[in-house]
Amino acid sequence: MEKKEIIGILKQVSEGNLTVDEALLQFKTAPFEDLGFAKIDNHRSLRQGIAEVIYGAGKTPQQIAEIAASMLANGQKTVLITRLNKESAEFVSIKIPLQYYETGNIGIAGELPEPDGYGKIVIATGGTSDIPVAEEAALTAMALGNGIIRLYDIGVAGIHRLLEHADDIMSARVIIAVAGMEGALPSVIGGLADCPVIAVPTSVGYGASFGGLAALLSMLNSCASGVSVVNIDNGFGAGYLASMINHIGAE
């Protein structure tokens, strides 16, 4: 939406020809920016509360750089890029300022916001091998304005490691539990916490884990109440959902 269109809508509101709600609807349904290879939804944060995120896998480094640059130029202060490999990150960082986090394959262009959520998001992993998915969740949550606590390698094979952090678990606003193998961690955490638990199955495990399917089914069949499940290795989806929950009531 161009400046003159925005001014025109605001003028109609001031003259009483358009209600505030009607004006807000027009802003929410404003056109996207067409780059030819991508149509950028610059008004998504107005409609959904969270701006558009770039999924880096399958895009060329040039495409990622152009999309991110356009978002920044249109006023988006934080641009989150998921599934960004090191080679693409090196190219993009030449074009725009970029912080790259290799463990989580995450790039953040622009400013990392101060936490403005209601409480803390705890990100827990069963093992060290689950950390890349957990970091995708953690960095997503941070980019969306949340304070986080990392509790890594506290799986059920050594349950005392988890119980050592009972205070963090019981005081969290939301918990993201990331695990492969048999995927038992979310059920155990769900039995300790009074907040929503988002379970993330990972593809970590031996042959019968079927690339994370065994963990996914275990989590879907959890006997602990309040456990929801996202897709295999979907740290981004978990971080996004946790942020939405953590911002309920924050305003």
Automatic annotation (TrEMBL):
Domain PurE: 119-251
Molecular-function GO terms, alphabetical: hydrolase activity
SMART domains (alphabetical): AIRC (SM01001)
InterPro entries: P2CMN_synthase_LarB, PurE_dom
Pfam families in the record: AIRC
Record protein name field: 1-(5-phosphoribosyl)-5-amino-4-imidazole-carboxylate (AIR) carboxylase
SUPFAM superfamilies: N5-CAIR mutase (phosphoribosylaminoimidazole carboxylase, PurE) (SSF52255)
UniProt superkingdom: Archaea
Species per Swiss-Prot/TrEMBL record: Methanolacinia petrolearia (strain DSM 11571 / OCM 486 / SEBR 4847) (Methanoplanus petrolearius)
GO process terms (BP): 'de novo' IMP biosynthetic process
